[in-house]
Predict the 3D structure of the following.
Amino acid sequence: AAIDEDAAPDPDERIVAPPAEVLDALAALPAGGPELEFADGRSYPLVLRLVLDRPLEVAVTADGDSVALAWDDPGTGVPAEGVRNGRPYRVGSRHVIYVGARDHFMLRLGAAEGVAVTLNDRVLEIPTRIVGHDWWLDRARLQPE
């Protein structure tokens, strides 16, 4: 079920922001935006980048198509170019995943702690109410708040 993000916030809800060391690690990774070329030669107007401190239940659809995450075949280090769509890459103790889309993503996370989400290199804070639910991410997320 999708979450109504325009609903009044739950007073007990928390917003999870990535810790400083994760933000520092993001700066060393290839930027996740329209300039990123994927292994198949494509680039996308929207690039979702996930940084996880452990393998985690994650479901991603890009423009309505399910993206298979290959947890059984993680790469080591993120290539400077030619990342594979949906492939987890081990970087130190973390896992980094890039997914491209033309219009939107639907993201479902199994947890908010230990997770960093960027859309076109913009760090998104994760409302705890979306854990286990579909979280709609599109160009509107890139607008100034």
Notes: The two ends are 25 Å apart (CA to CA). Residues 20-28 form the longest helix (9 residues). The chain has one domain: 15-142. Helices lie at 20-28.
